[in-house]
Structures
1.
Amino acid sequence: MAHIDASEVLAHADGLYNFARWLCLDAAEAEDLVQETYVRALASAHQFQPGTGLRAWLFRILRNVFLDRRRRAAPAISGEEPSDDVPGDVSTGELGQEQVRRLVAADVAAAVQGLSEPFRTVVLLDMEGFTDAESANILGCSEGTVKSRLSRARARLRSQLAAYGPRP
Amino acid sequence: MTCDTARGLILDAIRGRLSDASARELRQHMETCAACRAFEASERALSEALDTKLPQYAAPLALKRRLQGSWPHAAAPVRTRRWSSQLARMAAVAAAVAVVAGGAGSMLATRSAERERLAGESVNDHLRLLAGAPLATVTGGLHEVKPWFGGKLDFAPSLHFAGDEDFPLLGGAVERFLDRPAAVFVFQRRLHKASLFVMSLPGLDFPLRPTSRSVRGFNVVLWQANDQGYALVSDLNLDELLQLQKRIATAGP
């Protein structure tokens, strides 16, 4: 079995936990997701190719754990692929520096929570610094799909955050 | 270059992921297109909002410990065996000296490490609350917060201090504290917040008398009462935090 050093994998615990928190929006479930991610990573460590991106590999496992759990919880949607075919009436509201200054964490958190899970996921992966190609690899979809989702998700966020407007 | 093409490239440009040729072509378009410049400014503003204002969650210490415990460590490389055995002999000698010096010291060290762990977890959980974890409403004061915990905890948190004008009660929440759920009560003092974590006691070494320590710039007071552990944490100065602790500990039903 290829050995992956403990310190190497544990260095990604915070990033994985943050990703899990925003995926499932629940602290206890996020802990379970991260723990199961490490269990699966350990079980399939022999498949990991050193030098091919441990971080992206762990994020892919976590996302798969999340989807597996969702499918188990709602068998009716088992096998359903996340779709980027969402209502297309997305405004491209402009967001200015002054508005950003007035926003509080709860505003931004609410806007991100309001995104559908596939949209939220690409935004989070982008924030983690993954390229579109890496995100596509993590999500098992095409790079074009990632680009499309990210563009539309950001349009929604800009529109929603711009709508908060100046505060009294 | 059309505006559609330009807008498809702007985020990559902000991320520094465009080839020189594409970046040059985009720059040329932007020089003549006010609408795309406005779009770029809006994209930068969104990135700033996400980077600076979206709450980030750190993995709880307890989770990290569980992960560390479950991941096997590499076997020591052969070339270090000799050095390792020397280290092992030195450790054995040190352990023997420690035993001769008496067990009390090591017990104190263990206890100190446990208290450090409790204080560190308190600060982590306090930071998570500051980052935006939702609080139960408190329009009806403590009488409204306590029933809110019903069904969320396997114990009834013992707290009789409902806040006062110096330390108003802002709300309550349930957070994981190490391996168990804890009730959290959040008080305010001027612009500072103080979180009180109340949890069942078994297995946790909370001190009998209030004990304070400083962790990463926060003051933490730990104590136990009524078979429950209490951790009070804030960036308030220690004197004021101890005032709040006294009011919490002495309030009667």
2.
Amino acid sequence: MRQPDSETTLEQSELEITPSSKPEILNLAKPNSSILLFFLVLFSFGIYSCFWLVARVGELKLIRQNSMTPFLWFFVPLFFIAQLFAWPALVLELKRAQKERGAAVWNAWRGGWVALAIITSITVNVSEQVLANDVGVFFMSVAIWAFLILILDRQFTRLKKEGEGISLQPRSLVIRTVKIVVLITSGVVFLLAIYELVAKPLQLESVVVYSDGDHYKNTKLKVRFPFAQGGWRQVPIGSYSDGTAEAEFSGPVAASYLLVFRHDLSSSFSSIANFRMDNFAADYGPNKCKQIRALMDGQLEMISFVSCEASSLGAPIGIFVAVIKNQGHYVEVLGELTASRLPYRLNKRKIEKMLKQVRSYE
Amino acid sequence: MNRFFWTLLLSIGLSSSVVAKHQNIEWKLRNSSPLIERAAAYQKLAGEQNEANQVLLSVDVEINAIEIRTRYKIIWYFPTKESVQKYGTETKYFNELNERLTFYTALTIDSKGKKHPFKPSSAQIIDSDSYTTFSDQKELVMAMPGLDSGSMIVLEFESRVAREKLEVDWSNIIYVNNLFKRDNLEVSYRWPKKESFFWSNSSEHLSCHELASTLTCSAKRLRKYKGDYAVSWRDVLPQLIVGEMKDWAAVNRRASKAFNLAMSDVTGVKQLMVEIEQKNEKLEDKITAAHRFAARDIRYVSMSEYGNTVTPHQVASVLEARYGDCKDKSALLVAMLRELDLNAYPVLVATNRSEVNNLLIPSMAYFNHMIVCFPLNGQTYCIDATDQNTGWNYISSWIQGKVQLPLLGEVLPSNLSSNKFRWELAVDTELNFDQLGGVEEKLKRRFSGVYAAYMRNQMQPKGEEETSKWLKKTYRDLVSSSADPKFEVSSVDEMDVDLKIKSVTKYPPFADVADKLSYTEYDSWLKDELDSLFLRNEYYPQLNQGFRYKAKMSIHLGGLWRGSRETAEIDLVHRFGSMKRNVTSMSQEKMEVETEVLIPRQLISIEDIPKFNKFLSLINNHSSISIGGLTQ
């Protein structure tokens, strides 16, 4: 969920300081509305804070004539290690500026802010890399991050409003309008994402909730498989498929599900596999799939596996398929998974383990 | 059945002679006897039946110092026309060199009770010996007259065998059950008190009693034996055997003595081997040359006349004549290999038997073939000198696993070893798409071991031109009729190397180069091999002879497409064998697919035959290779 390019123009415009005939007076842009800033950061999933930081550091550079390089600060929110050094340095520089210009100095909770900023950053990183059910944690972290930016902005506002030799210039109507438009647009996207990733899965009516080791048995298709992890929920037909599945399951990771399909004997192991692989190739490019066929438990029954993996917007995505032939039809169990890297790997192993144990029964 | 019938008629027409006054056969036919009355009485009370019934088989054997007299009494009942068609012709095997037959009764009683005597002038004798085995058997064929539904055949005859004319031990085998049901089996043997005879009975239905040099056996209501697609009935039928040999060492001594007679004159062998050794340096090459000489330069002629039915002719005479049968060639080869300081020895082979346990008592009568074995570097090699195309590193396919008796003193019969994989084929295929969407296929097939010998046997009689036509026809039948392959065959006349068949085939454009590619390549060679591996037995275990297949296929998409979908990797592992396939993408437009199928030699039980066939079907169903490509 990237911000539109116009946002870059917006923040850069904040750096365009109008030269004054009296050099000791600095003309700076009037501070943002706190509410506007909070929601811009929140709706942009924190990306707006990168632009905001470049603008504020630029102002500090003008105020203190220091050697800071504003554009480098764009990357500070993105790299956790950099923050360990950057936040204390920024807060210190802000304090000095406040002191030099005679504004009220930020004393209370300064260290607390630095600590909280670092913890929030860690949480976002960890939720992206480790936690399986990371969507809720991620949204919560972004909200906290927006709040922290708001606190920091208040200190910059205090400096600009109370600091000597600083004149605040109103922002142009165009810029304000653009900000409103961006806010509304990103807000819609944000709410849609919340709905898709958090609200919708929660809304799915659970038919059955499975624990680790529970077995799913389809008495019509005479097929069964175990769940290799808890948190799987059987949901109504049509929740994920176009209504043609025989059973559907929502996974413990937000973007994971399993679908059970029946194919008649006009299909084959190859045709089912080829259909999935061709679809995946159409979406994510060629040669992303592997298929392997084996005998089940040394018996003369075949099981076919297909796995296709690619990345979408930097995050891994995969489909995993097991097909068996059973009593006059083929049964296909299709799993799909999207998550950040580590949870993807962990959950992929679980799904593959489940698919390997798809069996028919009498 | 029809084919067999016509083949039999043709055989009779071509090679038989009318034997009204054959020197071995005497006719003293009569139209009344207790046996005929017994048959007539049975006919009246026969009742409802639907298949041929041997009402009586009586075998009465009397052995004295001079001869062995065997009296046969046989009564048949044929309730249907089909049973007449099937069993209406009587046959009797006999040894022309030492056996005389006297017929006392040979007639038919038709359904109305009328008697139809057999006319001796219509008797035929055919030679039923098979190629490459030694035997002195002839077959008397009697097409019985006047048979209809409800009719009977009555036969009574005597066989007399002169003991002094027997080259080996005497023995007699009665197969208790047969392809038809049998109401009564009555067998008796009497021998001189001064002599010892030995017997064994493997039938639970035949009860036998030995008392004072007399053995009497009888059985009633014997079930018919169920024939099967691939089974040697000698291995499975319950049998009674009576013979004069005490142990296998005695059989071995007697057979060795006969063989050593042939080795008494080996003139010419030393000189022959000097020439061979001059032309070859390595011992392996010398063995190959000796094998080649015995197999190819000595032509096969069956020479089982009196005195040489089981005794080879002297080596010097075989070398001089340049012809001989299996035992003659074996004696020559033993002499040649011994000149190379190899401890070569002859081995008797029972080509019709694989079950050692069914050799119930020691006798040479089971064996009908001879080969040569020798140890080398801790391994035993066996050469069939009648096989012109199997190298000495492999045992000829037709005798693998058969019962053998090495003539090495006190050695018991055992099974000849068998290759774990009798049929070995490797196929290398290169498929190159051209710019128009056609394909050039470069194919290399490599046949190893006995499969190479089999292919050489197919090709050598044909010659180069006929072979090329045959290869083309095979290719068209199995692969495609839409192309015209060019063949190159190498090593056809060799014995010890793989046989290679290369071909280049250009297929006209079939793929739309502007569209995405969806291509399936059927592994026709694998499919063809699998077809021949399916087992068909219904009642008895069947041997899977072992099959190893390796295929490497390289597919070049010619810059027209980039691969978007690879074929499936296969990992089928089962107790019957395995199929594994690995796929390697060399680049976006070239991929290699390697397939290996291993089905080791194994006896498949009757319960497992459907499972084994299903295993073959699974391999068959996954033999094709399917890929997808997107336009560049």
